[in-house]
Structure formats: C-alpha cells, structure tokens
Amino acid sequence: MEYNNLPFEEPINIDPVNLAKSYVTRLAGNSMEDTITESNILVELDMICEMANFNGQYFTQVNQAMALPVSFKADEKVSYVKFNSLMFEGKFVTYSIVKIGRIIGASIVRALCLSFDDVTLLPFFDKLPNDMLLHVPVLAVDSMSRSEVDNL
User: CB count, 10 Å around CB of 51?
Assistant: First the structure.
C-alpha cells in the first residue's frame, strides 16, 4: 500500500493551556458577577480535561501568576501573592476565572486561569502553602510540559 499521496501535517499539540486559549475570547464584558457563560466554560473545560487525562504534574514557566486561598468569602478582602516570571512544578487540578475587584474609574481585572495545587516554586524548591492554589492566566503561560509519565 502506498502513502505517497497522503498529506502529512504536524500532529495536534493539545494540552491544558492550548485547549483553554480557544475559550478566552468567550469571556467578554466587565461584569464582576458570575455568569452562566463562565460556569458553562469551566464545566466544559473540566470535562474535556478529565476525558483527555490532562490532570497531573506539570513543569511550567509563566510571566504572571497569583496564589489565592483555596476558599474564601466573595464579599471579604482576600490577601494574595503575585508572581512575575515564575517557574514551578505543580499538579494541574482545574480551571478558574479570577476576578480582582473594581478600581474607581477602571474596569475589573478578569482572567481564565489554570489552577495548580501541590506547587514547588523553582529554583529554590519553596513549597506553596497547602491552603493556597496557584492561578495562572492562560495567556501568561510561556511553556508547559508534563512532568509525570506514570499515569499517561
């Protein structure tokens, strides 16, 4: 059998960040309120990730990230840690939409994020506290590669 006439294309490179990039434009507007669209996006992304076995350990380089408490009340002030130019290894657990409050005269900051647990910050191997998740805006990811191969 000859395959000379078949067009060969590069394989599809899909991972949690490339999957989420196609959803970023669906988050429009300046609303601080949770919307049905946002909830549907998060549910859809989580379902695809589960089917594709995307959850697991990743080595990731980002130009921006923030660590937030795992749980908090929506109407209270929340302390967070902001990171610029960060390398880490962590377990990708879910997607999130992070919204940072309103500034007088300006719109809100909102981003579709990848959320990581059990995070080791590099190069000094500092551990992120267990009561915090690392949220990385999808468009802030420079590189992301799976670091565990046992469960693939």
Answer: 8
Distance separating alpha carbons of residues 32 and 6, to the nearest angstrom: 50
- Looking at per-residue pLDDT, the higher value among 81 and 13 belongs to 81
pTM of the entire predicted model: 0.82
pLDDT, tens digit, for every residue of 43-67? 999 999 999 999 999 999 999 999 9
Angstrom distance (rounded) from CA 122 to CA 33: 35
Tokens 């959850």: give the residue: 55
> What element of type H or E holds 77?
none
The Cα 31–Cα 45 span in angstroms is: 21
Name residue, tokens 């908090």. Answer: 72
* Cα 69 from chain centroid (whole Å): 15
Question: What is the distance between the alpha carbons of residues 16 and 77, in angstroms, rounded to a whole number?
Answer: 30
